[in-house]
Every structure is written in C-alpha cells, then in structure tokens.
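Subject: for your reference before the review

Hello V.,

The reviewers asked for a structural picture of the protein, and I figured it would be easier to keep everything in one thread rather than splitting it across files. Below is the amino acid sequence we used in the manuscript, unchanged from the supplementary table.
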Amino acid sequence: MMERIAEASLGFNGRITGVAYLLYFLTAVLSELLVRRRLIVCGDAANLIATGFYAALTVLFYGMFMPVNRRLSLVAALFSLTGCVMTGLSIFHLASAQSPLLFFGPYCLLLGYLIFRSTFLPRTLGVLMEFAGLGWLLFLLPVLAKYLSLYIMVLGVVAEGLLMLWLLVRGVNVQRWKEQAGVRIGF
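And here is what came back from the structure prediction:
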C-alpha cells in the first residue's frame, strides 16, 4: 500500500514540475506581451511572477535529478537560482538584462546533461536542452546574437516546451527513477 502511494507521489511530482513549467511559460509570455504594449510596470510584475515560478521549477528539478548526480543537480540549481536573482535585479535596473543568461545558459547545459544521464526521461530531451543552453550562451556574443537571436529563441522555446509537455503528459518513469535513486542512495 505505501509503495503504491510513493509511486503515485513520484508520478504526481513529475506532473507538478510540468505544471510549474507551464505557469512559468504563461507568465513569461504575458510579461513579453505587456512590455510590447508599453505596459512596463505590469510586464515587470508578470516577469517577477514568472521568475518566482522558475525558482520553484528549479527546486523541483533539483529533487528530481538528485538520484542522477546530487552535486551536479545542486550546482545546476545554484546556477538557476542565481539567474533568477539576476533577473529580479535586471527588472529593477540593478543588473544588465543580459546577465541572467550567464547563469541560465549553464543551467540548461547541466539540466540537459542530467536528463541525458537519467533513465527516467528521454535522452532526446537532454540533447535539446544542451543545445538550448548553448543557444542562451550565444546571446552573450552580440555579433552572433544579432543574426541568430530568432533561431536561438525558437530552439530554446522548443527544447523547454517539449520538456514541459513531456512532464505534463507523461511525467517521469517512476520505476526507473526508483531504480536510479536506489543505486545512488544505497537501497
């Protein structure tokens, strides 16, 4: 009985992660739309909410990928949370708008690696996240970003969008997650 509850909980947590991702996406898009309509204050508020959802998503991913590699999952989480702080600072013009990419690029690279090494999510999603991470880092090179920004944005949205959809629809493979957790934790 308890094992069934634990299994249902793991599957539910994968889907909760997908919901947090969806909420992030929706508020980030809303923020962009509001800023484009010159509703800057509302757009900044939506961006702060989106950043909060991304911070929650980061914590959920940390727990999800601890069985794959606890230290690397922690490093990834620290990169992402630092990126969230930098996003907040950039909203209040206390940091460059590009500075969060210094942290979100490596975060996506590390997350892609963790997904690839996991046995409970498709490796294809890991590869896509790796490419998204490289793309976000290319934004830091103004010469390349000028010509590639549309492609980088599409790649990032596709990679993160597919991961979000996978988590919403399929969640994680609970049996494989438990096997990987058992190996790492020593059960």
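For the response letter, the relevant points are probably these. Residues 2-176 form one domain. Residues 135 and 152 are 5 Å apart (CA to CA).

Happy to draft the paragraph if you're swamped.

O.
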